[in-house]
Amino acid sequence: PLAYAAARCAVSEEQYRQWLQHYQEPSCVAKLASGERCAMPLDKIDSPGRFVVGETNCCARHRARDRLRTGS
Fold this sequence. Notes:
Blueprint: H1 2-9, H2 13-24, H3 60-70
Helix pairs in contact: 1-2
């Protein structure tokens, strides 16, 4: 079922799986220093095609930190 749904949405099965997790619980997935998940509430992305791992599943604080770390 996941592979079929992913194909219908024109995304990879892994992206669909992560989007589905986000859709069911729209919160930041970044890990804090304590090892716990940030869990800051996020806006829900309704379409798997608009979901970007590391961007739409992270809060602004964690997206910014990741961009600074990678230099982009």
